[in-house]
Task: structure prediction
Amino acid sequence: MSSPVNPSAPRRPRPVAGWRAALLAALAMVPLAAPLGGCALFGAPDEPRGNRVDAELLRDITPGVSSRADVSALLGSPSATSTFDAREWYYISATTHLRPARVPGIDNQRVVVVRFNERGIVEGVEQKGETEMRNVAVVERTTPVPGNDRSVLQALFGNIGRFGPAPTQPVTPGAGAPAP
Result:
C-alpha cells in the first residue's frame, strides 16, 4: 500500500533539474564569452631589449682612470658608436611589451653615453632617459624609378610583337668532329 501524500508538505526540488539548469546556463554563456577569447586578463610580459647597463657597473667606471678596455670588460661592446668620432660609445636599452596587431610598445628607454678622450681614457658617463630623447620623423617621400610606372595590363601585354623569331645559329662541328 502506498503512503498517503500530504498536500501541505513542501515539495523537494529534484536534484537533476538543478543540474540541468546549471548546464544550460553554462552552455548559454559560451557564445557570449567566445568573442572575449582573445582578450587577456594579464598583460603581455615585458621584454628587455638592447644592452642594459646596471647602475652598479656604472659606479665602477671612473672618469680620468678607466680605459676603453676597462669599459668594454665591464659593460660589453656598445650598441652604437658616434658616427663621425668613435670617442663616444652608446649603450641603448628598452623595455617593450606586445600590442595586438601592432609594433611593440616601448615602456622604458634608456641610453648610457660613455665619452673618451684622445688617449682612450673615460672623460664622462652620462645617462639619458625618455625626456632627453626626441622622435625623428620618417620622410614619406619616395624616389621615382624610371620604367616602373606601367599598369598591370601594360606589363602583361607590353612585350607582344616586340621580339622577332629567335635567330638560328650556324651548325659548326664540335671538338673532335671530322671537318667537312
The chain has a mean pLDDT of 78. The longest strand covers residues 105-116. The first helix runs from residue 15 to 33. The radius of gyration is 38 Å.
